[in-house]
Amino acid sequence: MSLLRLKALYQTVILENAQAPHHFGTLPNAKTVTLHNPTCGDEINVQMLIKDDVIDQIMFTGSGCTISQASASIMTDVLKGQTVTEAQKRLTDFSDLITGDSLNDADQHALGDAAVLATVAEFPTRIKCATLAWHAADQLLTMGDDADDKTK
Amino acid sequence: MTTNEYRQDFPILQTKINDEPLTYLDNAATSQKPQAVIDAMADFYAHGNANVHRGVYTLAAQATDRYEVVRDQVAQWLNAARREEVFFTRSTTDSLNWVVQTYGEQFVTAGDEIVVTVMEHHSNLVPWQQLAHRKGATLKYIGLTADGQLDLADARKQITAKTKVVAVAQASNVLGVTNPIKQLAQIAHAQNAILVVDGAQSIAHMAVDVQDLDADFYAFSAHKIYGPTGVGVLYGKYDLLSQLTPAQFGGEMISDVDWQTTEFAAIPERFEAGTPNICGVIGLGAALTYLQSVGLDTAQAIEQRLTKQLLTGLIAMPGITVYGPESPELHGPVVAFNVDNVHAHDIATGLDLAGVEIRAGHHCAQPLMRYLHVNATVRASVGLYNNSDDVDRLLTALESVKEFFES
Q: Is residue B33 part of a domain?
């Protein structure tokens, strides 16, 4: 078996994020979106607190595979502190990257560790795992910054 | 045994996946098709295609004969009392929904109970759950024993005088267990309830005698028994079928249509509205002929030997949890398991790189996943064309993937 290909997908930064996810937990009074991957039962809940058009705090909980958990963890690192417009640009770029499009250096750099997930494009059955948390964030951003707006 | 003379009958087994030989161990999802099935279907379209049950011309009469012969074949396969008790649908799911939309709609009322088991596939659960919502009926579940078998004592408790329908899988698509259908039929009938059996996971792996089981309805799919996708079968007892109003109307199912009224055709045409999947049904016929030529006993012996090898190998590996009974005598050809601290999807991707095709996920049995306190499992399932090399490749690849994630 090609362990090399397995290593290409499961790079150290991905394994580390899955084992010790960043910003794992809940934010009281934050907007929240829970998404499921119906094919496998993975679940991700993302919560976001937006202040003055900036993502002030972002946390997630959930259960699922290495790719879905690592991707959620890395996403919280990338999006925290970004303006809503910047965050939306990151989401579009990530979606392009994960479906095999290449980004310019600046956009790639702005995605931070998330750029590592580009190899998922070679594993089409796993793309949904990688994008689950990002779809949840996308829904949170389009909800606006009304902190009372809770969606299940 | 590393050789399996039946492998050569399945052309797909020559395929390479990720530069490795295809090791197909997802038979519980769908089985591969022997050349005989592929040829029968190609031959029908090349030389025999016409619509059934209407044409006066020779080709249509021949097509109708080929289609109707399969009804006889299926009736014999199931030991149905009459050929009219068998009709063709799109899938097991379609067959089960059919029972809900006819028997369920006509006979289940508010306050009635519908009893299923916690191991049901969504196809034998969601239609009943939604019917219960529509009718104000109660959906109840039969639980499991500690080793994952159906708890018959609980069945006796859950099935009461209020129960109208008991719906149960003959074999689980996760736990690998076979359920005591005959006893469940006795319990259900003692309370005047009907027994609906989902045969999707059992039809290819054991002899089924609907009269001996005393099942009121029995559903299965052609594609799980080496036939094509898109064809399901529903068996129903004739006296039950004769009480049911069709849920679908149109061509083929009528005997006379007037401006305001319609007289329906006889059973079973009454329940086969529209042009059926003629070619698919012919493919099912070829699949049954093929399996008969192999012998269900021979197929079972191969599967039991491989299941034992698989179970023994998995149990010997540290950090593996097997779901359902660990004893090979109690375990059918479906083995679900998990690796400690590694998600089923990550295992599946690693195995896929070795050409080992298995299923990972909730297997369309989310209530069972909740019952087992997992959100996914890995599942390997064998068929008559698998050999011990297949099982060895799975176990070897699993060792490497485990090591990779554990290091």
A: no
Mutation for testing the A interface, residue in B17, B349, B369, B401 having most A CBs under 10 Å: B349
Q: Which residues of B touch A2 (CB under 8 A)?
A: 18-19, 353-354
Q: For residue range A68-120, list pLDDT tens digits in order.
A: 999 999 999 999 999 999 999 999 999 999 999 999 999 999 999 999 999 99
Q: Does A12 touch chain B (CB under 8 A)?
A: no
Same domain, B316 and B232: no
Give exposure, B197-228, as e/b (b: 16+ Cβ within 10 Å).
bbbbbbbbbbebebeebbbbbbbbbbbbbbbb
Q: Residue A103's domain is classified under what CATH number?
A: 3.90.1010.10
Q: Decide if B369 touches A, using CB distance below 8 A.
A: yes
Count of the separate structural domains present in chain A:
1
Mutate to test the interface with B, among A40, A42, A44, A126 (most CBs of B within 10 A): A40
CA triple B227-B181-B218, angle to 5 deg: 40
In angstroms, the CA B386 to CA B4 distance is 7
User: Considering only CB atoms, which chain B residues are within 8 Å of A3?
Assistant: 400, 404
Contacts of B342 in chain A (CB under 8 A): 66
Tens-digit pLDDT profile for residues B145-183: 998 999 999 999 999 999 999 999 999 999 999 999 999
Of B251, B266, B292, the position where a domain reaches its end is B292
3-state secondary structure of B338: strand
Tell me the shortest Cα–Cα distance from B161 to chain A, in angstroms.
36
Which residue of chain A is at minimal alpha-carbon distance from B347? Answer: A65
Q: DSSP H helical segments within chain A, as ranges?
A: 3-9, 12-19, 66-79, 84-98, 105-110, 127-142
Looking at the fold, whether B234 and B137 belong to one and the same domain comes out as yes
Q: Which residues on A lie below 8 Å from B400 (Cβ)?
A: 1, 3
A136: tokens are 């949840």
ipTM: 0.87
Q: Is A43 on the interface with B (CB under 8 A)?
A: yes
Options B195, B351, B364, B401, the catalytic residue? B364
Q: Please, what is the average pLDDT of chain B?
A: 96
Query: Given B248, B268, B292, which residue is the final one in a domain?
Result: B292
Q: Which structural domain range is residue B377 located in?
A: 7-25+295-406
User: How many Å apart are CA B186 and CA B100, to the nearest integer?
Assistant: 21
Supply the pTM of this predicted model: 0.94
Q: What is the CA radius of gyration of chain B?
A: 22
Helix locations, B193-271, DSSP H? 210-213, 238-241
Q: Are residues B308 and B238 in the same domain?
A: no
